[in-house]
Design brief:
This protein is of the alpha/beta class. The protein has 2 domains: about 10-45 and about 340-435, Aspartate Aminotransferase, domain 1, CATH 3.90.1150; about 60-325, Type I PLP-dependent aspartate aminotransferase-like (Major domain) (Aspartate Aminotransferase, domain 2), CATH 3.40.640. The chain is about 40% helix and about 15% strand. The protein has 15 helices and 13 strands. It has helices spanning about 10-20, 30-45, 60-70, 85-100, 115-125, 145-155, 170-180, 200-215, 275-280, 295-310, 315-325, 335, 340-355, 385-390, 425-435; strands at about 50, 110, 135-140, 155-160, 185-190, 215-220, 250-255, 270-275, 355-360, 375-380, 395, 400, 410-415. The strands form 3 sheets. A 7-stranded mixed β-sheet has the order 2-8-7-6-5-3-4, sandwiched between helices. Strands 9-10-13-12 form a 4-stranded antiparallel β-sheet, with helices on one face. It has a two-stranded parallel ribbon with strand order 1-11. It is globular, with a radius of gyration of 22 Å. It binds pyridoxal-5'-phosphate.
Length: about 450
């Protein structure tokens, strides 16, 4: 028998009893994945998975072939250099020049086991630079796993919802927190996961100036590189370039994930780029934990080394080949991933037609870009309630409250796994949802 929506709430309640959530709004991405898979198994209803940012595309064959070749050459038995293989470091340096217009020699470009490893390595640095500075400031909403990392490490953090502090209002808000809270560093993603707003040059300049004035380290998370599809940042050496704080401060670090722009999530590979000035800077308090008080040395030979002692050779060769093709203009990654923008536009329309509204609904007064994520709410329900009710209709998402958002009524919806043929299914399920819940 074909299962219909909504599924029997009793079945969901039974499964929920096995979890430890009082409020589903607090469930992490992976916890919602597990729960929705369990419901699928129990009810036989195929789910629409909008909870996890898994790329819905294959990695380009240039990468797959280069990996296979490296494997055949016997690299599986060899340890890789911690900082990354030389050809990859060279391509990373060219990539940063070609698409961000920042000159940075290969020696300051490092490979990581996904950006997730890059951020944990930087957290191990940031909170140890100064004896009297303990916390990271997250310009939120953000990627929940980074806060999990900070908590697992036992550090403090501060956060604020940037939607209320856009443009020149950002300066006072940053100053207020930085002065009060002994902050060591600031992290944000651009474009922002989950709201899909993008910081303007003015805002990046403010962040850079605050970093200069208070000697703070910046972690610029470019996980969705080039995916503000209102602009085309995909032509090597040609403007417009991906905006960056690196134009305004020397205290920058950058995380460029290969997971989303290059659909390389499964091989766990990312780029960590560090300003040359910051690399060579000495922080006497670092020697409490590391063999050197020099930022770059401690980062590579202590923090990164202790986390995984390097990144597997084969994805390094795969990414090298891919970046080379991108740098030489033979492969335009934007052409592949811009389908996410189209999908978001279609899906937003369907949600809006069925009584939902967009939570973060503009980008500093301008129309929001369409991309990997968007945010939704439904009148009269908290994020946790809406998440649970959508599960009854076979749609899984995560609550915004796990992202540092102040908008606890909302959810994050990710478009990446949605296939064209699922669109009518979503339309039908939301229509029934709205019929049952609408006033
Ligand atoms: C903002 C942000 N930063 C970092 C990451 C981690 O990416 P990676 O797969 O490279 O570890 C993600 C993944 O979803 C993300 O959304």
């Amino acid at each position: 028998m074909k299962t219909q929506v909504p599924i029997d709430p009793k079945e969901l309640d039974e499964l929920l009893k096995e979890t430890h959530f009082d409020d589903l709004g607090n469930a992490s991405i992976r916890e919602v994945v597990r729960l929705s898979q369990n419901i699928e198994k129990k009810t036989g209803l195929p789910f629409i998975h909008m909870e996890m940012g898994v790329p819905g595309l294959d990695v380009n064959r240039i990468a797959a072939e280069a990996e296979a070749e490296a494997f055949a050459r016997g690299y599986a038995s060899k340890y890789a250099p911690i900082a990354g293989i030389e050809p990859l470091k060279e391509e990373m340096s060219k990539f940063v020049k070609n698409f961000i217009n920042i000159e940075i020699p290969p020696e300051y470009c490092f490979v990581t086991v996904g950006s997730a490893q890059g951020s944990i390595a930087l957290f191990l640095m940031a909170n140890r630079l100064f004896r009297d500075r303990a916390g990271i400031l997250f310009i939120d909403p953000g990627f929940p796993v980074q806060k999990l990392q900070v908590k697992v490490l036992g550090y403090d953090y501060e956060t604020f919802d940037v939607f209320n502090y856009r443009g020149d209002r950002l300066k006072d808000k940053l100053e207020e927190i930085v002065k009060e809270k002994n902050i060591s560093s600031i992290l944000y993603s651009n474009p922002n996961n989950p709201t899909w707003i993008s910081f303007t040059e003015e805002e990046l300049k403010i962040i850079g100036e605050v970093a200069n004035e208070h000697n703070l380290m910046i972690i610029e998370d470019l996980a969705y590189f080039g995916m503000d599809f209102r602009k085309d940042y995909s032509h090597p050496g040609e403007p417009p370039y991906q905006p960056t704080v690196a134009k305004y401060t020397d205290n920058w670090t950058m995380l460029i994930s290969a997971s989303k722009a290059f659909s390389y999530a499964g091989q766990r590979i990312g780029m960590l780029i560090v300003s040359d000035k910051l690399y060579h800077k000495k922080f006497p308090d670092l020697s409490r934990y590391y063999s050197s008080d020099q930022f770059g040395h401690a980062l590579v030979y202590n923090a990164l080394y202790s986390l995984s002692a390097g990144v597997a050779h084969t994805p390094q060769y795969g990414l090298t080949a891919l970046l080379k093709a991108v740098n030489e203009g033979r492969y335009n990654f934007r052409e592949d991933v811009k389908v996410y923008g189209k999908r978001a536009e279609e899906l937003k329309k369907i949600f809006l037609e069925n009584g939902f509204h967009i939570v973060y609904d503009n980008d500093l007064g301008e129309e929001l870009a369409n991309g990997f994520y968007f945010t939704i709410a439904y009148e009269g329900m908290t994020g946790g309630e809406l998440l649970k009710n959508l599960l009854l209709y076979g749609i899984s998402t995560i609550a915004l409250q796990t992202t540092g958002s102040e908008r606890h009524e909302g959810l994050r919806a990710c478009v990446s796994q949605i296939q064209e043929e699922q669109i009518p299914v979503i339309e039908e399920r939301l229509r029934i949802f709205h019929k049952n819940f609408g006033k």
